[in-house]
Specification:
Blueprint: H1 17-27, E1 39-45, E2 53-58, E3 64-65, E4 70-72, E5 80-81, E6 86-87, E7 92-96, E8 112-117, E9 123-128, E10 133-134, E11 137-138, E12 140-143, E13 149-152, E14 177-183, E15 191-196, E16 202-203, E17 208-210, E18 218-219, E19 224-225, E20 230-234, E21 250-255, E22 261-266, E23 271-272, E24 275-276, E25 278-281, E26 287-290, E27 316-318, E28 330-336, E29 340-348, E30 353-362, E31 365-371, E32 384-392, E33 395-403
Antiparallel strand pairs: 1-2, 1-12, 2-7, 3-6, 4-5, 4-8, 8-9, 10-11, 12-13, 14-15, 14-25, 15-20, 16-19, 17-18, 17-21, 21-22, 23-24, 25-26, 27-28, 28-31, 29-30, 29-32, 32-33
Length: about 400
């Protein structure tokens, strides 16, 4: 030492390269690479104050290097690549959007994903639900090593807070709560009604509603439904859906927090006696035209003239396939009120013919048929959404089903 200034001594000058490398390796400490799963995304914030941030935690017992890891909001990994970043045991890496050396793609307030990959290409993903407030505070979402998450008070760079629960109400069960009525033209304005057919109060927190399976419209916050109660919402009102319901026909999708979903099909809007009709649905998704009864028990099915090719629930009924989604096969049930010649065909979403399931005379009553996910050649079809159509005389019903692989 010379005073308070450390003197640098060149201990390798003039040595052969290989010997120089050996000496440097002995005097320079090495840090093992981090292991994905031992380091993981432990918290994320996707709206409000503080600004968007991501936190990564080293749950291991030793220091490790994040060099070569990648971070993004998709599995394209074109946002952030880690350089010489080390994490001590029990330490957090914290980064705010658009800060130097941080991520820049942003985290959507309506929900997003955070992807982390190691240098070998192994990946892990956590799902950010839409941002929520509690008592005026924009909550973060904290995660375990397995990706299980919950809403918490923001604790950037510190141990995760306790999970925040919105009351002690049990979550609703999809199928017990279901879309019971919708209106897609005229007066009153477009609305969607959800009914709790269960015996107990339940919470819709984390459910999602949309007119497609993208679920980027409405995320339910702290909404509870008493037994026998209805949730009713008019388009574009506060805390309601905004995507609209097409007068020419549309779909209403409802999803629970676990990703299970159900869909009902809205036929084109119709009138009867000068009244713009709604469409009401059973728990299995079977629907018919009714007089509008928003927030009340569904009215009786209205039979329309065959000149309009409208739904005639008094002649045939087509039920939602079960299970749905499915792999490898599913069962489709339908009902005839009288003896009739019926056809049941499956199409892909482009309208291409896939398979004929039924083509025969059948007696009145309930019937069912299985589909094993094959086409008319007996070949297995790819995963995706398919349409099955039941037709008898001039009446037909269609529903969608989802094949998984």
């Amino acid at each position: 030492m010379n005073g308070d200034v450390a003197q640098h001594i060149n201990i390798t000058g003039g040595l052969p390269n290989n010997l120089e490398e050996t000496i440097l390796s002995l005097v320079t400490p090495t840090v093992d690479p981090c292991e994905l799963g031992t380091v993981y995304v432990s918290e994320g914030h996707n709206a409000g104050d503080p600004e968007d941030y991501i936190e990564i935690y080293n749950s291991g017992e030793s220091e490790c290097s994040m060099e070569g890891f990648k971070l993004d909001d998709s599995n394209e990994f074109d946002d952030l690549t880690f350089g010489d970043v080390t994490l001590a045991a029990g330490e957090y890496w914290l980064c705010y959007e658009d800060d130097e050396g941080c991520f820049g793609s942003g985290l959507g307030g309506g929900g997003d994903e955070i992807w982390l990959s190691d240098p070998s290409g192994n990946t892990a993903m956590v799902t950010l639900m839409p941002s929520l407030d509690s008592e005026g505070v924009s909550l973060s979402q904290s995660f375990d090593a397995d990706g299980t998450g919950c809403y918490t008070q923001p604790t950037p760079g510190q141990a995760n807070g306790e999970c925040i629960t919105f009351g002690d109400t049990d979550p609703c069960e999809l199928g017990t709560v279901y879309v019971s009525e919708a209106h897609n033209a005229g007066d009153p304005e477009d609305y969607i009604e959800i009914y709790n057919s269960g015996d107990t109060e339940c919470s819709l927190l984390g459910f999602m509603l949309d007119d497609s399976d993208e679920f980027d419209d409405l995320f339910f916050g702290d909404v509870t439904l008493a037994p026998g109660a209805y949730w009713l919402c008019y388009e574009d009102t506060d805390g309601c859906f905004s995507s609209g319901l097409g007068a020419g026909g549309d779909e209403v999708w409802l999803s629970d927090p676990d990703g299970n979903s159900a869909m009902v099909t809205l036929l084109p809007s119709a009138e009867s006696g000068g009244v713009s009709l709604s469409q009401s649905f059973d728990a299995d998704g079977t629907g018919c035209y009714t007089q509008p009864t928003p927030g009340l028990a569904n009215g009786e099915c209205v039979t329309l003239s065959t000149d309009n090719s409208e739904l005639l629930p008094s002649i045939i009924k087509l039920y939602q396939n079960y299970p749905n989604p499915f792999n490898p096969s599913t069962n489709i049930t339908y009902e005839l009120n009288s003896d009739a010649y019926v056809e049941m065909k499956v199409y892909d979403m482009n309208g291409g013919f896939v398979k004929n399931l039924v083509s025969r005379n059948e007696t009145a009553g309930y019937h069912s048929i299985d589909w094993d996910g094959t086409n008319y050649k007996g070949q297995g079809v790819s995963a995706g959404i398919y349409v099955y159509r039941l037709q008898s005389a001039n009446v037909f019903h269609t529903k969608k089903m989802i094949l998984l692989k």
